[in-house]
Amino acid sequence: MPKHPEQSEKRHGEPVLIEDGSLMVDGRELRVRISARRRRIGLTVERDRSLTVHVPRGCEVRRLEEFVRGSSAWIDGKTRLSEDRRQLHPVRTLQDGEIHRYLGRDYRLLVVEGEESPGPEDGTGTPPVRLVAGRLCVNRSIAGDPVRVRKALADWYARAGQRWTRGRLQPWAARMDVPEPQIQVRDLGHRWGSYRAGPGNGVISLHWAAFQLPIHLVDYVIAHELAHVRIAGHGPDYWRLLGRALPECRQVKKELDELGRRVWMGDLLAGQESDGA
Ligand SMILES: [Zn+2]
């Protein structure tokens, strides 16, 4: 915690700021940074929503307090804005009983003995994660290793998402009168989807984590990227095309922004990550 700025120096009987520190004004704590070159007071809201005031050396405490009080509406607006944009992605432990989502529905993780029956996916053996009777079943062979479960879950979302999207793409493409591109599901960092033009009709990539979202939001991501097959960028033509297929697209996008920042992106509780992840 920074110490209080030195206020002992007096000039015209008023306390002035001569050292960096922190100051409380009307219940707000501010980090004080003094700069000899500065002539005016400046205020910044940091990423963690804390406040820093930059003040000229010798600035009177009262002048600073008045400045902060006068900026109160601005501070509220700024901190609210960053609150709205704050990412709230949960961390998971990937233990038995934990709730996971697929297409907006809740499924509990269930650790099961991995029998050697062919998996429902492609017959290449029992996949380490599968959806059976409303449970997301994880083989006991990997259940003790969150990093392996994370990878197996991401792979499961990717496969399930890919299969699901196959049935979804054609109707959307037809509705938008756009030729069907290839589909890939993988990790896209912090984007839900992307489109790359190329041979054939190009490739749409979707984030595996997007398939935790409710169906209408996954549909939005698909339609959003499909519109890029025809129009690059997000100009008026783009929104016109998307809006014809999905009139409520602006509203749905807002919902995606809101729900999307609460989606599990694969983060594990600290201490459980490893280089192999
Ligand atoms: Zn876009």
Automatic annotation (TrEMBL):
<dbReference type="InterPro" id="IPR053136">
    <property type="entry name" value="UTP_pyrophosphatase-like"/>
</dbReference>
<keyword id="KW-0482">Metalloprotease</keyword>
<dbReference type="GO" id="GO:0008237">
    <property type="term" value="F:metallopeptidase activity"/>
</dbReference>
<protein>
    <submittedName>
        <fullName>SprT family zinc-dependent metalloprotease</fullName>
    </submittedName>
</protein>
<keyword id="KW-0645">Protease</keyword>
<dbReference type="Pfam" id="PF01863">
    <property type="entry name" value="YgjP-like"/>
</dbReference>
<dbReference type="InterPro" id="IPR002725">
    <property type="entry name" value="YgjP-like_metallopeptidase"/>
</dbReference>
<feature type="domain" description="YgjP-like metallopeptidase">
    <location>
        <begin position="39"/>
        <end position="258"/>
    </location>
</feature>
<keyword id="KW-0378">Hydrolase</keyword>
